[in-house]
Amino acid sequence: MRPERAPQDIRRILIVKWSAMGDVVLATALMEDIRRAFPTAVLHLNTLPAYAGLFAHDPRFDAVWAIDVRKRGARLTNALAWIRRVRRGRYDLIVDLQRTDRSRLLLTLLLLTGGAPRYRLGNRGGFPYTHRPEVTDPRAHAFLMMRSALHALGIPTPTTHPVLHASPQQEARLTALMQAEGLAPGRFALFLPGSQAAGWLKRWGAARYRALARLVGEAGLAERVAVVGGPDEVEECAAICADAPFCVNLNGRLELLQIAVLAQNAAFVVANDTGTAHIAAAADRPMLVLCGPTDPARVRPLGERVSALQALLPCRSCYAKDCRNARRHECMQRLTPELVLQELRALLGLAPAPAAGLIRLSGLPA
Fold first, then answer.
1. Does pTM top 0.85 for this prediction?
2. Closest Cα partner for 24 from 58, 64, 51, 62?
3. Are 61 and 184 in the same domain?
4. What tens digit of pLDDT does each residue of 182-214 get?
5. In a domain, 156, yes or no
6. Residue 79 CB neighbours (<10 A)
7. Are residue 195 and residue 84 in the same domain, yes or no?
8. Whose CA is closest to 45, among 330, 53, 285?
9. Do residues 364 and 304 touch, judged by C-beta distance below 8 A?
10. Which ranges of the chain would DSSP assign to H, the alpha helix?
């Protein structure tokens, strides 16, 4: 049974969240809840070097430190450095938001050597944690597991979307870029068409995004379209915006935190299942995520205004690296630009939802 309120003898807290980027961003909602529950506590975050920059300007943390305990060739050295760093922190509470056993092992070593804090929370509970969360199924949405861990110690979790903090300088540079590219607040759509190269099946495709850009303009939903990607999506973004004056290719021109600021100014966001969609969810704007080989119940970004769409096929959510369907990539082909436009109109309250044959999930994971 969940305690009614969190213990108030906690003065020093460490949150452990290493990866992946989407899960780290999801966890920022819980980080907000921890800070609210312990407003005067010293709060530290342990993440990976690749994600430390997401918290460079975050006022919630007194320290953000990164030791890559998974780095090949340095795992033992870094594990010992991690244990020494935690010992120096003299924490009263460690909140382990990882979903693997590596952090469990490190905390076990910490406990066996006499350096563990009084309170230890973990996603799946059991040894060496002091409280057991209600949600322990690894197939559950990552947010549900992490939130349940906080509930086990009586920490309220009212935050409903990721919380990220860009610096004033980052916001100013983004504002200048928007003005230079003619992106008026509330009058452009934001497309996030990528995924890492190894997960290409998650991509809806440049041709479909290009067609959707034209359709949203014709329908009056947006005057322009901004396209954002990463190093793996250079060609994808270029193809979407080729010879399209209404399209602005911002690939490689933004820092990660600026994506959330850009999304905050967008009329709506359309994205694949990709890490940048989780960052954009921090803006709490209408968002439609297009899923095929991954389960929208598990992967969709966090937010009350987030919807996920998937074709109702027997092979859906296959999580395969290559398509084995005779109709190659059918899960994404079924989501035509015309159908997605209808779904967008429904998301914006302008029309009823499209016909059957689709899976729709909206709002917070449950």
1. yes
2. 51
3. no
4. 999 999 999 999 887 778 899 999 999 999 999
5. no
6. 17
7. no
8. 53
9. yes
10. 21-37, 75-89, 102-112, 142-151, 168-181, 206-218, 234-241, 256-265, 275-280, 296-299, 330-333, 337-347
